[in-house]
């Protein structure tokens, strides 16, 4: 749990840490290993250059950053896609790109200060990431799909652990 606390920048309340640990154990996940990774980002200029060459590196499954979203980590965690976590689920073939889902979540948090309203932001983040995983890896037997859904669940668990007042115990897959 040290990596999770480092990513959050504060100690999680013991009851939240316990719930997160129990959930991770039920998913056969090592949260410390999950959050030791460096964020994966590519500049907009690089993305455009690759697109000009017809190279698709990111598959957001239609979940794009909203108009007006500014990617600038120097402005804080509402401008850095998936804060302290990789923006993509890397896999052979296509990477599932969560940056659009995380950008939508950032903007939702920016628009809603009330914890009750932010529950909806968290639920939508989970729905968007599950949609991305199922769209990028449509075959339910594809192990990349299971890994992607597990990663999406970890991100959702992390967000709700960091903001326990914005928790809704619904994790879908």
Automatic annotation (TrEMBL):
Domain of life: Bacteria
InterPro entries: PLipase_A2_dom_sf
Protein name: Phospholipase
Organism: Corynebacterium kefirresidentii
């Amino acid at each position: 749990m040290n990596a999770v606390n480092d990513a959050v920048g504060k100690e999680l309340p013991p009851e939240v840490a316990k719930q997160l640990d129990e959930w991770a154990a039920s998913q056969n996940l090592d949260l410390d290993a999950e959050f030791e990774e460096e964020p994966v980002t590519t500049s907009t200029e690089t993305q455009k250059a690759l697109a000009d060459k017809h190279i698709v590196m990111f598959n957001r499954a239609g979940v794009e950053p909203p108009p007006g979203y500014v990617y600038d980590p120097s402005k804080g965690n509402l401008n850095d896609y998936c804060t302290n976590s990789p923006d993509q689920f890397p896999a052979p073939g296509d990477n599932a790109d969560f940056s659009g889902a995380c950008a939508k979540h950032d903007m939702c948090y920016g628009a809603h200060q009330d914890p009750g309203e932010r529950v909806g932001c968290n639920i939508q983040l989970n729905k968007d990431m599950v949609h991305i995983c199922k769209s990028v890896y449509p075959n339910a037997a594809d192990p990349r799909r299971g890994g992607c859904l597990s990663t999406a669940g970890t991100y959702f668990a992390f967000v709700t652990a960091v903001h326990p007042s914005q928790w809704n115990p619904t994790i879908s897959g």
